[in-house]
């Protein structure tokens, strides 16, 4: 059974990632056809698209009654985004300079969204009411981003140079087909991924679903963010690297955890792993703030330090 679970786990991961790459272009095509505002298209592409694996893994976890697996995945993915992903990008681009576009208020709001679920878990469960509260707070974050929507103008050329045949019946059918196929693949593969992850966690980690999600599920679900950061670093788009990282962790921490808790309450007693990931996240946010708002930016040395922080966390969590 465990051999089968391993095969299903890795195969499902590949399908989730492939379908996650298919969905954003289809969403953009449909958004253009429906004449949605430029900001909405940009926000979907920049802040939500790379979080599709976490979103569908979370929904599948709730459906199978192992919401703690999704909670671990979210915290592990957020830590990986704030350390490993940013660190790799900083090494490639040589330096991520001070960023004046993303306000300090936005930064602190993102930090609050990331740690809010742990605060709600102090009573041993993130209830449906807590999930609703998280979604409301995420709505506040969205409103703040909407206020700063001019930062997203470069991400979309909506209304300019529309491709010929955009509104043809054939193109509409193609976009709907791509969207439906990628959505079906995401739903199916995320369901089998959680089924396999549950068996592996029960077999090798004494049913510590949070630990398995934090260290193993999160590695795979963070790959889209890593790919985006590498492409942005190669193009010298340092603002996009920071914007995507903060948008992703905010959507993960409040939007996805809130939705999962609303579907199925997350029972989680604060544990050693929870305190370790919270401590590592705190250090990463502190370094982020000191580098980008109080310092001169994140250079290669800073990138190496962020990667080292993630590796130390993984080693201590797994072996000590």
Describe the structure.
The protein is mostly helical. The protein has one domain: NCX, central ion-binding region (A middle domain of Talin 1), CATH 1.20.1420.30. Helix content is 77%, strand content 3%. The chain is built from 12 helices and 4 strands. Helix 4 (67-93) crosses helix 8 (209-221) and helix 9 packs antiparallel against helix 10. The radius of gyration is 19 Å and the shape is globular. The two termini are 29 Å apart. The model is unreliable at 153-160 (pLDDT under 50).
CATH homologous superfamily placement: NCX, central ion-binding region
| Structural class by SSE content | mainly alpha
Could you estimate the helical fraction of the residues in percent?
Answer: over 70%
Domain unit count: 1
Classify the fold: give the CATH topology.
A middle domain of Talin 1
Largest sheet: 2 strands, antiparallel
In angstroms, what is the radius of gyration? 19 Å
Indicate the overall shape: globular
Number of strands: 4
CATH class: Mainly Alpha
The pLDDT mean sits at 83
Biggest sheet: strand arrangement = 1-4
Please provide the ordered H/E string of secondary-structure elements.
HHHHEHEHHHHHEHEH
* Second-tier CATH architecture: Up-down Bundle
Percent range for β-strand residues: under 5%
Itemize the secondary structure elements and their pairings.
Layout: H1 2-33, H2 38-48, H3 52-63, H4 67-93, E1 95-97, H5 104-120, E2 125-126, H6 128-147, H7 169-204, H8 209-221, H9 223-234, H10 238-263, E3 266-267, H11 272-292, E4 297-299, H12 300-319
Antiparallel strand pairs: 1-4, 2-3
Helix pairs in contact: 1-2, 1-7, 3-4, 3-7, 3-10, 4-8, 4-9, 4-10, 4-11, 4-12, 5-6, 5-10, 5-11, 6-10, 7-8, 9-10, 11-12
């Amino acid at each position: 059974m465990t051999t089968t679970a391993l095969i299903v786990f890795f195969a499902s991961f590949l399908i989730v990632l492939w379908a996650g790459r298919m969905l954003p272009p289809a969403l953009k095509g449909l958004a253009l056809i429906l004449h949605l505002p430029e900001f909405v298209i940009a926000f979907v592409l920049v802040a939500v698209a790379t979080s599709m694996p976490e979103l569908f893994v979370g929904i599948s976890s709730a459906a199978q009654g192992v919401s703690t697996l999704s909670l671990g995945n979210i915290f592990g993915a957020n830590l990986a985004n704030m350390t490993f992903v940013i660190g790799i990008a900083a090494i490639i681009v040589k330096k991520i300079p001070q960023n004046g576009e993303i306000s300090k208020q936005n930064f602190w709001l993102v930090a609050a969204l990331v740690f809010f679920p742990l605060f709600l878990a102090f009573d041993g469960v993130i209830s449906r009411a807590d999930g609703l509260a998280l979604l409301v707070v995420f709505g506040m974050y969205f409103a703040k981003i909407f206020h700063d929507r001019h930062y997203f103008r470069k991400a979309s050329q909506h209304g300019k140079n529309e491709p010929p045949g955009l509104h043809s019946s054939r193109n509409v059918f193609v976009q709907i087909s791509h969207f439906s196929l990628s959505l079906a693949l995401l739903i199916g593969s995320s369901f089998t991924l959680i089924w396999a992850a549950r068996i592996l966690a029960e077999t090798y980690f004494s049913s510590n679903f949070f630990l398995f999600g934090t260290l193993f599920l999160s590695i795979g679900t963070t790959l889209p963010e890593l790919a985006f950061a590498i492409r942005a670093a190669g193009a010298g788009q340092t603002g996009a690297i920071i914007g995507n990282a903060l948008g992703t962790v905010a959507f993960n921490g409040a939007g996805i955890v809130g939705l999962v808790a609303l579907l199925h309450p997350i029972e989680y007693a604060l544990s050693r792993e929870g305190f370790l990931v919270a401590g590592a996240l705190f250090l990463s946010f502190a370094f982020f703030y000191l580098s980008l708002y109080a310092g001169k930016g994140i250079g290669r040395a800073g990138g190496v330090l962020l990667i080292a922080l993630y590796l130390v966390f993984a080693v201590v969590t797994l072996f000590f």
